[in-house]
Amino acid sequence: MSPMSDPLTPTDRTKVRRLPDRGTYDRAIIDEVIDEAYVAHVGFMVDGQPRVLPMTYGRDGDVLYLHGAVGNAMLRASIDAEVCVTITLLDGLVLARSAFHHSMNYRAVVLLGVATKVDDEEAKRHAFEVIVEHVMPGRTQVARASNDSELRKTLVLQLAIEEGSAKVRTGGPIDDDEDMDLPVWAGVVPLRLTPGEPIQDPQQTQVLPAPEARSPI
């Protein structure tokens, strides 16, 4: 994977205004969230109407790759169009003494920019590998590579990681002083996405070693 770039420069669209102390433009934090999560929600306009689509993705340095079926109307509408990509990791449920101050600990990234189509065959194959490796490192070394027919059936978009920001909440509940002595449990319930025991496809007659999923960063 290519090295990351300098911190992102805040813009009118990405500047964190609500609780700005939680906002950051640090590429190390932004890339960490992108690399740890599995699902991106991609927003774009289709026939004048807003749409949001959950998608798998992969990052290579300053480029985020998205892919889907060639016939996907929403993806086709995103070619050379402005898109908004959001990626979120939920780290905990923050339970306060009052209902109003309940919250969540999270790390979230918002990226904005113009999505462009990847047409070059080698670049498209590379994007496929980046996406597969993001989901399961080492998988491209053992799985059959995509053939020409599969490449033609798939639309790949790339988004330069140039405009965006991250927002992070950590810590416990923030209660009002007059509520501090209420007899209500307060604290954080940590959450973490962890892989379970692999289940081999029952149609396989040969017992093969299961892959080892990547752990949260």
What can you see in these coordinates?
The chain has a domain at 20-165: Roll (Pnp Oxidase, Chain A). The longest helix has 15 residues, at 121-135. Strand 4 (57-60) and strand 5 (63-69) form a beta hairpin. The model has no long low-confidence stretch (mean pLDDT 91). The two termini are 16 Å apart. The protein is an alpha+beta fold and 217 residues long. It has four helices and ten strands. 17% of the residues lie in helices and 35% in strands. Strands 1, 2, 3, 4, 5, 6, 7, 8, 9 and 10 form a ten-stranded antiparallel sheet that branches.
Keywords:
217 residues, alpha+beta, Pnp Oxidase, Chain A, ten-stranded antiparallel β-sheet, 4 helices, 17% helix, 35% strand
* Total of helices: 4
Distance between the termini: 16 Å
Any idea of the CATH topology of the domain at 20-165? Pnp Oxidase, Chain A
* Share in helix: 10-25%
Largest sheet: 10 strands, antiparallel
What's the count of strands? 10
